[in-house]
Design goal:
Length: 315
């Protein structure tokens, strides 16, 4: 039986920074998460699925729930009075709240609904966020640094699952440790013709039978990184969204550094895994623009190391 007695709010009181400010921001994010979960549960019956007809700064179709969830996140974070900058997949420009700067400590980057191509089929989606210390003054802090300053203050990954009948996130997993090697790979193989040769050879290697090294791996791909990495955190294996050949926007992959790749890299590293672009640690990258994309190779340590070896041409 799970440890039913530990709620997220109790956990935050016990472990968050002595001032409690971080706990307040996380508490507001939990409120936004509950509101989004409630909306998702009822959106189909209420006719609130489908697209807005608009295209976001990434050139992607915007769903009604993307925008609704973005507004919920912005309002919840504004209400904390501790956040003066936000970067969102659904906002072309970073949102700066100058009147909050004196008091605020944090900038939050988020993807309100990751995996939104799954929305209309009731698939798994999720909200991804990273909380960064405010840097500099005024709008300067929107030149955000990676999450590294936070890493030393955390100690592993606990998971909290929303119990909807009582409206509480309850601890469901404690100190998650990713197996050092898995047996699942997760990648959109329809994109294989535009992968670089190292990634192509690596995925071919995973598919090749070899009893001694536990191959072939098996394939699982939801098309929602939150779902694919949830499985990877618990069962191990490797998730990839590699760079693609050509001049189009995917020459650095698809996933955005600040609100998709870096937060997931942080979780995976905290659980003992590894997060790379194929040649560089994701959390070592200094962002140069709000919606910067990076290739992602993430999961069990040994699997990611092996992928890097293929990318480097050693196999
Ligand atoms: P989104 O934030 O617009 O939903 O895009 C990100 C998602 C990831 O969750 C997922 O891994 C990837 O895009 C799937 O892309 P593709 O359909 O190209 O495989
Ligand atoms: Mg996303």
């Amino acid at each position: 039986m799970n440890d039913v007695a530990v709620s997220l709010s109790q956990h935050l009181r016990a472990v968050a920074a002595p001032t409690g400010d971080l706990a307040i921001v996380l508490g507001q994010l939990a409120v936004a998460g509950k509101l989004v979960a409630r909306e998702l549960a009822h959106a189909a019956l209420g006719g609130r699925l489908g697209t807005t007809g608009g295209i976001n700064v990434q050139g992607e179709v915007v769903k009604k729930l993307d925008l609704w969830a973005n507004d919920v996140m912005v309002q919840a974070l504004e209400a904390s009075h501790l956040v003066c900058g936000m970067v969102s997949e659904e906002m072309d420009e970073p949102l700066h709240l100058p009147d909050r700067c004196a008091q605020a400590k944090y900038v939050v980057c988020f993807d309100p609904v990751d995996g939104s191509s799954n929305l209309d089929v009731n698939g798994v989606v999720g909200t991804i966020f990273s909380i960064r210390p405010k840097q500099g003054r005024g709008a300067d802090h929107l030149k955000i640094v990676p999450t590294t300053p936070f890493t030393s203050r955390f100690d592993g990954v606990d998971a909290f699952t929303l119990e909807p009948t009582i409206g509480e996130f309850i601890r469901s997993h404690e100190k998650i440790q990713i197996p050092s090697r898995g047996h699942i790979y997760s990648v959109n193989e329809a994109r294989a013709p535009v992968w670089q040769p190292g990634i192509l050879r690596f995925v071919d290697y995973l598919r090749a039978p070899d009893r001694a090294t536990g191959r072939p791996y098996t394939a699982r791909y939801v098309g929602s990184m939150v779902a694919d990495l949830h499985r990877t955190l618990l069962e191990g294996g490797i998730f990839l969204y590699p760079a693609e050949a050509g001049e189009d926007a995917k020459s650095s992959g698809k996933l955005r550094l600040q609100y998709e790749a870096a937060p997931m890299a942080f979780l995976v590293e905290q659980a003992g895994g590894k997060a790379s672009t194929g040649s560089e640690r994701i959390l070592d990258i200094h962002p140069t623009s709000p919606h910067q994309r990076v290739p992602v190779v993430i999961g069990s340590r040994d699997d990611v190391v092996r992928a890097e070896e293929f990318v480097a041409g050693r196999h």
